[in-house]
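Priority: medium. Attachment 1 of 2:
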């Protein structure tokens, strides 16, 4: 059995991709608004839904890293004692799919 070596923090913020897309769309809308304002006196406003606002807030929060837990996991992996639960992995994957469907 091959053991993968984990180096450094590789965590991701689950809201990061969604927030990046939202930011991009908001910037595009603002850019179009500026272009429209240059040619006419009309203005366009952009309002974010409550869900979009939560995504933006979640993207700005960095997760706290438990260095002791990371060290324990590294040791367990290096010693071959780390047990992988296929059920936990499947549950987390399905939760991620469910979250993406809501978008």
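Attachment 2 of 2:
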């Amino acid at each position: 059995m091959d053991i993968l070596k984990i180096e450094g923090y590789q965590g991701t913020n689950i809201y990061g991709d969604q927030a990046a897309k939202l930011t991009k769309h908001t910037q595009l809308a603002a850019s179009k608004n500026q272009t429209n304002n240059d040619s006419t006196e009309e203005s366009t406003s952009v309002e974010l839904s409550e869900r979009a606002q939560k995504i933006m807030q979640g993207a700005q929060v960095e997760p706290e890293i438990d260095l002791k837990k990371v060290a324990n996991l590294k040791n367990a992996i290096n010693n071959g004692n780390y047990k992988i639960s296929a059920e936990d992995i499947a549950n987390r994957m399905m939760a991620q799919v469910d979250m993406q469907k809501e978008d």
